[in-house]
Structures are given as C-alpha cells and as structure tokens.
C-alpha cells in the first residue's frame, strides 16, 4: 500500500528537510485537508465506504428517518470512515518503520488494523438493520415491534 506510491517513495531524499509547526490555523486546516485528499486518492476502500454512506443518506431520505435514527446512522457511517483513517495511519507507520522488510509484528499490526475496520463495518450493519427494518417492513404494510421481537426471542 503506502510504499507503492511513487510520490512517497521519494521521501527519504528529503530527510534533511526541517519540519515546522503549523504557523497558523489556516495552515493547519490546509494540511488537514491535504491529509483527507491523500487518503481519498489512495484508499479505494474509503471511497467505497463514502459511496455507501451516500446511498444510506438517500435511503434515509426516502424512508423519512426520524432524528434519533439519523443520529445512529451518522455515528455508524463515521465510525467506519474513522476506522479507515486509523487503518491507513497504521499501515503508513508500519511501512515507515519496517520499510519493505518482512516482520511478524508488522503483519500483526496491519491485520489488527484491518480487523478494526471489519468490526466497525459489523457495527454499521447492525445499526442499519435495527434502524431501517421497521421502515422497510412498513413499506409492505407490516408493522413490527422490535422490542417485543427481542423479548419473545429471549424466552
Ligand atoms: N512488512 C510486513 N511484514 C509482514 N507482513 C506484512 C508486511 N506488510 C504487509 N504484511 C501482510 O500483508 C497484508 C497486506 O498488506 P498491505 O500493506 O498490502 O495492506 P492492505 O491490507 O492491502 O492495505 P489496504 O487497506 O490498503 O488494502 C497485511 O495485512 C499483513 O498481513
């Protein structure tokens, strides 16, 4: 991943460059936006999650979700997006430390980071199922009671 990027492969030549603190709020903002642009360009999975986020937004508008539903859906979508950011940071740091050498700990760090994304996606799916299922059933004229269903299930 990270080391395939030609622009970043050239980075070691810049070792003598000094790193400066962000001198102003706008400079910090510009660097943050650059970070978002970099991950958007490089990480296909993040682009897929953002695309799915737009589809969820359209579905939410279609079904007319209530405020509390929107809160949960927003938390779920941003949890996945944040986990992709974290995954990319860990991959970049691991590649920086081990370069292209094999190390079991490097593999462990990357696999655990990827597992974190999977856990976040599982969280998102559970939230989406709980939030959307009454709206979908209602479309077919079926009124459900989720709490009653869970209660009956546990008996
Ligand atoms: N330096 C390394 N040493 C040992 N195993 C590694 C190393 N780099 C990668 N791996 C293993 O190869 C897998 C794929 O690594 P890679 O850097 O391509 O991440 P990726 O999962 O493809 O990234 P992306 O999230 O961008 O798809 C890792 O999950 C890890 O198991």
Automatic annotation (TrEMBL):
Cofactor requirements of the protein: Mg(2+)
GO cellular component, one term: plasma membrane
EC category: transferase
Entry annotated with the keyword Lipid biosynthesis: yes
Membrane topology summary: Multi-pass membrane protein
EC number: 2.7.1.-
GO molecular function: ATP binding; kinase activity; metal ion binding
Residues engaged in binding a divalent metal cation: 43, 91
Key word NADP present: no
Cofactor binding note of this UniProt entry: Mn(2+), Zn(2+), Cd(2+) and Co(2+) support activity to lesser extents.
Binding-site residues for ATP, renumbered to this chain: 21, 43, 91, 110-111
Transmembrane segments: 46-65, 71-94, 115-137
Pfam families: DAGK_prokar
Binding site for substrate: 21, 84
Compartments, record wording: Cell membrane
UniProt keywords, alphabetically: ATP-binding, Cell membrane, Kinase, Lipid biosynthesis, Lipid metabolism, Magnesium, Membrane, Metal-binding, Nucleotide-binding, Phospholipid biosynthesis, Phospholipid metabolism, Transferase, Transmembrane, Transmembrane helix
UniProt-recorded name of the protein: Diacylglycerol kinase family protein
Taxon lineage: Bacteria, Bacillati, Bacillota, Bacilli, Lactobacillales
